[in-house]
Amino acid sequence: MTTILEAKHVNKSYTVHQHEEHQILKDINLLLKQGEFVTIMGPSGSGKSTLLYNISGMDQVSEGSVYFAGEKISALSEKKLSKLRLNKMGFIFQHSHLLKNLNLLDNVLLSAYLAKNSSKEVIGARALRLMKQMGVDGLASHNITQASGGQLQRISICRALINNPDILFGDEPTGALNSSTTAEIMDILHDINAAGTTILLVTHDVRVAARSQRVLFMLDGKLVAERNMGKYNKQQNIRAREAALSDWLTEQGF
Hints:
Layout: E1 3-16, E2 20-33, E3 37-41, H1 48-55, E4 63-68, E5 71-72, H2 78-88, E6 89-93, H3 104-115, H4 120-133, H5 149-161, E7 167-171, H6 179-194, E8 198-202, H7 206-209, E9 214-219, E10 222-228, H8 238-251
Parallel strand pairs: 3-8, 3-9, 6-7, 7-8
Antiparallel strand pairs: 1-2, 1-4, 4-5, 9-10
Helix pairs in contact: 3-4, 3-5
């Protein structure tokens, strides 16, 4: 498989109290193959979200290099990096971060309009098709106060997919959802991955990570362990995968 994302010796530090340096990421090396579904787990404060933001170009590494599809994105200008994120990457967060002044359809459309890769007619048709696939097409004219948390997260996934990204990043995308809605969202992400989109998620939830192909464990700013779960399919016993992963996480002290 082709490598889609690679981090080499990535470090990230912040200056606190004007002079004290605090290192968050410590010599991170990570390789992600096209079409993989990978999750990052670890205790709160271990650096998971910081890692996600740095390797996706949302933040700038302090040291080291990040490559996306062979291009060194850690050296790109902010303008070029923004264009790459807009066209090649999709993002889902714990909270939907949808715009209150737009209806749900326009929230999905906005980044495609900014990218200007297709006509408004083509973009509109794709947005409605995505919303139909996610079961939220009936909410197109609604605002964000007229939808449930699960529906808003489905809208967020539509927004993340509107420019047909090569990779989908998620930072605790099910963290604010109940267990049944979490399972529904993970089934959607599984189908997206099966269609060829690479997925990298940060999560605390074993139910989420058990559906991924690989689980990376992070502790004190370092990637310290990895569990190969194998490709998940919906015919498998998800409870058995969850139990096996829980046992492994216990061995890591989680």
